[in-house]
# Entry
Amino acid sequence: MDRSVRDVTGAFMKVQVMIRDGGDPATLFNDLGGQAQILEAFVPFEREISVVAARSGSGQIESFDVIENEHSDHILKTSRVPAAVTPSVATEARRIAEKIAGAFDYVGVLAVEMFVVKDGTGHAVLVNEIAPRVHNSGHWTIDGASVSQFEQHIRAVAGLPLGKPIRRGRVEMTNLLGDDVKELGRWLATPGAAVHLYGKTAVRAGRKMGHVTQVFPE
# Structure
């Protein structure tokens, strides 16, 4: 079940609970305030991936390499590029993202999150979420690609030709969540690590305070 509720400050927050075998949906419904909710089937996925793509007003589309994502308490923690998927899965993921961008006549950068699931003897991808914007899983492009998702977005909306994304190596992006930002000194002392802080002063559990990008030779 998934819905938005207000916290003690009156701000909206998203709450997710899993109904396991033997669980009581009615009790969980009441625990969440008895308001309208979204009930989703559980997808037995092997991994989550995302594709960040850019589309210009003229229809030019450029996609970054497929990203593999790991979460901590439902919040993105680590993104790795390239994703550990077969070439056919990577090609299909990029095809789907580009088809979505074209279907919406979209201009700018968008991200499409997908699940990789077993399909007979192979694998298939299922679209999980569409984010019509630059995306956290694409932050690795700032340091790890020939053009970043942010520059690509500006190029698209300004009517400029899109850049050809070329990955500079194997890339890992780590989000600094909450108290993770207190490990800043360790990251600054790590050779090759690029630290990006977001200027947030209040540290809260799960809040994205910044991220660290590492680029490794392949």
